[in-house]
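We emphasize that the prediction below concerns an isolated chain of 254 residues; any contacts that depend on oligomerization or on bound cofactors are therefore not represented. The input was used exactly as deposited, without trimming of termini.
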Amino acid sequence: MSPWSKSLSLSCRRILATCVRQHSSLTTELIRNMDKKATWDRFYTENNSRTPTFKNFEWFFGFNSVQDIIMPLIQAMSRPDALLRVLDMGCGTSALGPSIYRHSFLPVSVTCADISPVAVRLMQEHIQAKAIQPHNASSQLEFLELDCTHLDKHFGLSSVDIIVDKGTTDALLRSKEGKGKAGVVLKQCLKVLRSSGSLLQFSDEDPDARLLWLETEAQDPGVMRADVGVQEVGELRGVCYYCYQVTPQPVVLK
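Result of the prediction step, given as a token string:
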């Protein structure tokens, strides 16, 4: 069994089966086509129709499981001249981005971006209904329909401080035609991140496989390079999760 399919069987199948237990055709479509906009539109539409009130869908885990990784990093990046820019990439209907907005002592501008307009609309409606207030009155929160293979069409080069990727790259890598897109997304992240910024990639993928992939894809001689590190998030429901931190580095021209 390949590392991709093994990981899918341990984590993704369990999560998807829980959410779409009575929709076997949707489960199959998700497993095969997690890189497709139409797949996620269908998923969020059907998942939302199963409950009388809105409920956040959390891929892997929620904010509480990773706040001790994300929030200290934000605090260490204080910039007195401007808001810290945080991107929750492939946000879906997760509460992760809004939770960063709510809990950050420092002023942040949080963008929750997803390829699915259905997910974006559901989150906009939910946040308006809940009237969530930030810890810092200067903080901002927005929801944006965006294909993350084109981040530089919305964000300026070297303009984002932190990008959080909770399952988005995993979904691409595990879909039938998504591995190439995953590499494009990583390179887009490195383009829009500040030199002091970081990409936090949360995954259940074993470091032996993910580190090699990240180190290979993040290097483009004369164009970009990055340092890659990993720390264990912990074990949840029998699955071990990791945080991969990718930090842009200056390109050395020979």
